[in-house]
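The protein record minuted underneath.
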Amino acid sequence: MDKKEATILKWVLFINATMFFIELFVGWFAQSTALMADSLDMFADAAVYGIALYAVGRSVDRKLQVAHLSGWIQVILALGALSEVLRRFLLGSEPMSILMMCFGLVALIANTICLILISKNKNGGAHMKASWIFSVNDIIANLGVILAGILVMLTSSPYPDLVIGLAICVVVLNGARRILRLES
């Protein structure tokens, strides 16, 4: 069981770390707070999967501690993404809807693969439950990025991107809250 968990966590760590760098660059280039928020969520997930990998084979209490640590990491990164939404609201932006939709779709595919991998072991301990919650939130965030891209294209306004970037922050904070409430 531990070897299977470790293999799953290594794969989802690799996928999320790769997507973090891709979405961070594209989000910055496309001036999209939704993509930037999602990239920071990918970074948080990669960190969480790395921490969860540490917990494999450890005690139930250690797995719970690791899950709680990952929840706090999510809180910190959600607040960072929230500051980016605020910055772009105050300074303005012109998000590129096509890039938002394309890379939102790429991220959706990546996160669906992660969710499928993790679903097989989501009851393997608090660290795996936390990983599953993050993956579900990622899919919600990816759908939000795609929706933001569509709305930006239809309205020629940056506000859908800002609103959905804010909504992604709320989803991530809610996921962090759920994880911080996990018990062994």
